[in-house]
Amino acid sequence: MAQRLLVLQSLWAMERRRPDGAEWPLDRKLGMIRDAGFDGAGVRFFDHGYAREVTGFLRAHGLVWQAQCYPETVEDLRPILDRVRELGADHVNLQPNARPYRLEACFPYIEGWQRLAAEAGIPVFIETHRDRMTTDLMTTLQLVDRFPDLKLTADLSHYLVGREFAWPVSQENHALIHRILDQAWALHGRVASREQVQVQISFPHHRDWLDLFMGWWEYGIRSWRRRAPADATLTFLCELGPKEYAMTGPDGYELSDRWAEALMLKDLVRALWARIEAEEVSRAPQS
């Protein structure tokens, strides 16, 4: 079995948060994800009833999911793992919702979460995210130095806007991002600029930022393909979030069609994977 890419859609990103209060009901959101050809969804697992309902639909339609969680302590992960044992998941995506002042104070969290994941036999990837233990790029890289087996979910939008890299991005900063990607076992998809955590990828004047992220994701996919087993699966979660991630005009409505952009992102990433795969096949020795 060959390596596979699964492109998921975030259910959080299906929230609209419009001034008129119009939201899609859950069954419509799930139907849209299915009918648009996504491979599954990112699902918050802290609400047991919600997780059971959503995963029931996804399973019935042959789709997959990643379990999102936000533990504040080591033990907060335990009920999430219990839920995954019951409901399944491709992996657990953990936002480390703790903010120790000193680097050394982070170690017991990482060690504890890794221990619980190993005991449960469930893959747990720690997400790079602002307002979390991984909020700072340099701190996260120091954690990688301390835990070289640390498996990350790379959401690079937070580091571009957090570090406010100068444009064009320097080779030094590319190298720092590549170090994160070399630890990444899943990718979250959002395009940032150096001042905004999310820009509209359908706007022509944001093309440079889209190209930057497509280049980083290409590096990340190639790195993952070298490290991962021959039958492994990589997930890419489209996560174009609602306001205040999405920019809005003076009327409070978004400046672009975020759902259409999610479909655009899905197709771009699948085309990128196909190109990489084709290149690797063409370079393989012929028997």
SSE blueprint and pairings:
Blueprint: E1 4-10, H1 26-35, E2 40-44, H2 48-60, E3 64-69, H3 77-87, E4 92-94, H4 107-120, E5 124-127, H5 137-146, E6 152-154, H6 157-163, H7 171-181, E7 184-189, H8 207-227, E8 233-238, H9 258-283
Parallel strand pairs: 1-2, 1-8, 2-3, 3-4, 4-5, 5-6, 6-7, 7-8
Helix pairs in contact: 3-4, 5-7, 7-8, 8-9
Keywords: Isomerase
Pfam family, one: AP_endonuc_2
Organism: Aliidongia dinghuensis
What do these coordinates show?
It comes from Aliidongia dinghuensis. Keywords: Isomerase. By secondary structure, this protein is an alpha/beta fold. The protein contains nine helices and eight strands. An eight-stranded parallel β-barrel has the order 1-2-3-4-5-6-7-8, surrounded by five helices. Helix 7 crosses helix 8 and helix 8 packs across helix 9.
Keywords for this entry:
single chain, 287 residues, alpha/beta, TIM Barrel, eight-stranded parallel beta barrel, 8 strands, 43% helix, 14% strand
Give start-end ranges of low-pLDDT stretches: none
Please state the CA-atom Rg, rounded to the nearest Å.
Answer: 19 Å
SSE ordering: EHEHEHEHEHEHHEHEH
Report strand %: 5-15%
What is the assigned CATH homologous superfamily? Divalent-metal-dependent TIM barrel enzymes
Please give the domain count: 1
Within the CATH hierarchy, at the fold level, what is the topology? Answer: TIM Barrel
The structure class reads alpha/beta
Q: How many strand units?
A: 8
Mean pLDDT: 97
Distance between the first and last residues' Cα: 19 Å
Largest sheet: 8 strands, parallel, barrel
Give the CA-based shape: globular
**CATH hierarchy class name:** Alpha Beta
Helix content: 40-55%
Assign the CATH architecture. Alpha-Beta Barrel
**How are the strands ordered across the major sheet?**
1-2-3-4-5-6-7-8
Number of helices: 9
Keywords: Isomerase
InterPro entries: IolE/XylAMocC-like (IPR050312), Xyl_isomerase-like_sf (IPR036237), Xyl_isomerase-like_TIM-brl (IPR013022)
GO molecular function, one term: isomerase activity
Protein name: Xylose isomerase
